[in-house]
Design a protein that fits this description.
eight-stranded parallel sheet, alpha/beta, binds L-rhamnitol, binds zinc ion
Length: about 425
């Protein structure tokens, strides 16, 4: 037996004594598909034209060399990231990450022709694709308003962008054999106290109804709506608040998207899942990490992530949740950002899958003392050894080694990008 095998065998024994089947945990983890967010690779700039300003209350800071400047470069970077993340995953696009522009065609007229090479690539890799309309970084976002803008012509432009992305999503879903998530997040909001919060919300609701007027087969496409508390320059009111979307989704049969960076800092999305699942069948997650005013730091294994993972696995929700990542950091190697964040979420899921059943049992008999003792005892169990074994069996480098490939790629490919 190699040293690693011995270590794993010891861990397996320890878990076995607590009634935990590590083999089963690993095979459940195998089936969890993550939505890898392509926009970490191009700093959310998209590929419509060279000059781009990110608007809508998000900011990407940093200037680490190697940003993907076109869809081809982005796909190459994603190829490497996907290779270093164990398991089988899908890729999420933003609606401006086109692979080509067509003369005279703006976002309101995009079709699958603007995304053809993405589709070909995904087919070849046998992965699913998602797409989110990009309601930001465009002149038509005026006074930080899109679907809620008072001018019907501006609303029309954005409604048509929403519809365009749904149709592109439908094609992705049909051709790739896996429904595309089409996520609606609009930055609409106000820097200072609005005199009227109601009218913009009403306009937003009506615009969304127009976007969703055409019924699309759920086998190909699923609409999700994403709330937000505030953004930079949109501090006083966000039109698409949590309450707005909860009721919108419930009344229209849409899927709620929870971005974990979009709530008050002490509010945790982990606590919300069970509440939603009492009355809804599916959830889309944007797994992210809020740090002060920024909602999009690279995720790390922290209490919030562990709670989210725990809540996701505890009640058999894994196949009811669509897991998407959503963060962007341009101060570090962007491929490493994907790989570290995705693997960290998998680690959090593994910790949850390896949780001994004792605490739940203690709770059933209202024994809070034993529950606390067991919860704390579980924290020192050797899940890292199971993680290492899982990576090895899936032919993926360990946490200490995956940077070697990323550094080599950085030297050969990224540094030449200028
Ligand atoms: C913004 C939302 C949204 C974006 C993407 C790029 O706060 O989280 O999901 O991150 O549209
Ligand atoms: Zn998000």
């Amino acid at each position: 037996m190699s040293r690693n095998q011995e270590l794993f065998a010891a861990a397996k024994d320890m878990y076995g004594n607590l009634g935990v089947d590590v083999e089963k945990a690993m095979s459940v983890l195998d089936k969890v598909e993550l939505g890898i967010h392509a926009w970490q690779g191009d700093d959310v700039r998209g590929f419509e034209k060279d000059s781009f300003t990110l608007t809508g209350g998000c900011q990407v800071t940093g200037n680490y060399p190697g940003r993907a400047r076109n869809a081809d470069e982005l796909r190459k970077d994603l190829d490497l990231a996907l290779k270093l993340i164990p398991g089988h995953h899908r890729v999420g696009l933003q609606g401006h990450q086109v692979d080509r522009m067509l003369p005279g065609v703006d976002r309101d007229g995009f079709t699958i022709e603007n995304f053809r090479s993405w589709l070909d690539w995904a087919k070849e890799k046998k992965i699913g694709l998602d797409i989110a309309p990009a309601f930001y970084g465009h002149d038509k976002l005026d006074h930080n308003l899109s679907l809620a803008h008072p001018d019907p012509a501006i609303r029309e432009f954005w409604i048509n962008h929403g519809i365009a992305c749904r149709k592109i999503g439908e094609t992705f879903g049909r051709e790739l054999g896996s429904p595309a998530i089409v996520n609606f997040w609009m930055p609409d909001g106000f820097k200072d106290t609005p005199a009227d919060r109601f009218t913009p919300r009403k306009r937003m609701m009506e615009s969304l109804d127009r976007c969703f007027a055409e019924k699309i087969d759920a086998a190909y496409e699923r609409d999700t709506v994403e709330q937000k508390l505030f953004g930079i320059g949109v501090e006083s009111c966000t039109v698409g608040s949590h309450e707005f979307y909860m009721l919108y989704a419930a009344s229209r049969g849409k899927i709620l998207c929870f971005d974990t960076g979009h709530f008050h800092p002490t509010e945790q999305v982990g606590d919300k899942l069970s509440a939603i699942f009492c009355l809804m069948d599916e959830i889309f997650l944007h797994v992210s990490r809020g740090v002060r005013w920024d909602s999009d730091h690279v995720i790390v294994v922290n209490d919030e992530l562990l709670s989210l993972a725990r809540e996701s696995v505890s009640y058999g929700y894994l196949d009811k949740i669509h897991f998407g990542l959503d963060y962007f950091d341009a101060t570090i190697n962007r491929i490493a950002a994907w790989v570290i964040g995705a693997r960290d979420f998998q680690k959090a899921l593994l910790v949850a899958l390896l949780e001994p059943a004792g605490a739940k049992e203690a709770e059933r008999s209202l024994d809070g003392t034993t529950r606390l003792a067991l919860q704390e005892a579980a924290k020192t169990l050797p899940w890292g050894l199971v993680w290492n074994e899982w990576c090895e069996r899936r032919g993926v480098p360990s946490d200490f080694d995956f940077m070697n490939e990323i550094r080599a790629y950085e030297k050969q490919v990224l540094s030449a990008r200028g």
